[in-house]
Amino acid sequence: MSVRKLAAVSRIVIVTRRELRSYFTTPLAYLFLAVFVMLSSFLCFQLGDFFRREQADLLPFFSFHPWLYLVLMPPLAMRLWAEERRSGTIELLMTLPLSTLDLVVGKFLAAWLFSGVALLATAPIWQTVNYLGDPDNGIILAAYLGSWCMGGAFLALGSLLSALTKNQVIAFVMALFVSLLFLLLGFGPLSAVLSRLLPEWLAGLLISMSFLTHFQDIARGVLDVRDVGFFLVFIVTGLLATVAAVEWKRAE
């Protein structure tokens, strides 16, 4: 790795550490973690009929993750740039010896790692399944990895929308609406309507853009490279678009 690349990685690490540390300096971070774990447990054991199914797997747990992220990832993403622009600290950030890409990637990684901490906090649910039965832990681990990748896609989308406004409420509403759109494109009834109204190639393209479409197999433990690749490409595209949005807003 060249000296220039090492320097870029070092700068991103510095931003990530700073942002990640800031999450744990407020009670809201711990509230987020508590809400994430409680909602995950409720959806899995109550709405997911975990005990009635009498199967040692976490399908009920992971099947609710797209909808759980729909509610919880926009609040996590809305502060990434909207708060910086509202408070005026973005001007200070831009004077530091950091590129816009360094800041965008560092801020995103901090939020993504924090979401990973929230996901790890649900480990007792995994332990419960192992206590009650003999699940395939390889499948569960693959589903956790896929879920984290999907969470990153939600955050990348939220980061882009947060960069377009200085109002956190507006950033939240936009992220919620657009994220819902990316979910519903793969929702059965809507997919059927799209298939009837649109040309086959266009309907297939729209459905293939859905987070739900790519996560359904992952939730069952099928970690397909194409599904994980979709989320990773979506993340990269979202971050590059965020860089463009930040630069655009800066030039206004």
Protein architecture, described:
The protein contains 15 helices and no strands. It has helices spanning 3-23, 27-47, 50-53, 59-63, 65-77, 82-87, 89-95, 100-120, 123-132, 137-162, 168-184, 188-197, 200-208, 211-219, 225-251. It has one domain. The mean pLDDT is 85. The protein starts with a helix and ends with a helix. 82% of the residues lie in helices and 0% in strands. The chain is mainly alpha-helical and 252 residues long. Helix 5 (65-77) runs antiparallel to helix 11 and helix 10 runs antiparallel to helix 14 (211-219).
**SS summary, helix count:** 15
Number of extended strands: 0
Structural class: mainly alpha
Largest sheet: none
Rounded to the nearest angstrom, the radius of gyration is: 19 Å
Question: How widely separated are the two ends?
Answer: 36 Å
Helix percentage: over 70%
Mean pLDDT metric = 85
Task: Please indicate the count of domains.
Answer: 1
Tell me, what's the shape? Answer: globular
**Strand and helix order:** HHHHHHHHHHHHHHH
Assembly type of the chains comes to single chain
- What fraction strand? under 5%
Low-pLDDT residue spans:
none
